Amino acid sequence: MPYQMFDHGPFVEFRLLGVVRGVDLPGDDWYRRIVQSGRLLLDASDVEHVAADLLWLAGFARSVQSRGPFVTAVVAPSPLVFGTFRQALAYRGELPHPAPVEFFTRREPAIAWLLEQVPPKGG
Asked: Origin, by domain of life (predicted)?
C-alpha cells in the first residue's frame, strides 16, 4: 500500500496513495510518534481504490489504536472510500481506552478539528 508519513509537530499525517491493498505498513517509530503527538490525520484524498479486506482494515485500526490513546481525523472525499473506512471503524472492536475518530470529506476542516482536540493522556 503506497503511503507517505509526515510529522507536522502537533499531529502526524498518514497519507494513503493509489490502491489500498493492506501491505507495507509504517514501522514502530511512527506508531510511537502518533501516540506521542496524540493526534493522527489519516488522509485518503489520493486513494483510487480500496482492495484490502474490510476486516484487515479494522484489525489494522485496532492494532494501531491499541498502542496508546490518540484522536484521529480521517479525510476521504470519495464516497466509496469514506464509507469503506467508516465501515472498517465499526468492525475494529473495543479498545482499552477512548479513541475518538471523526470523518471529513475535506482536509481543512479535518485539520481544524484535529487541532482543537486535547491530546489524550497516557501516550
From this structure: Bacteria
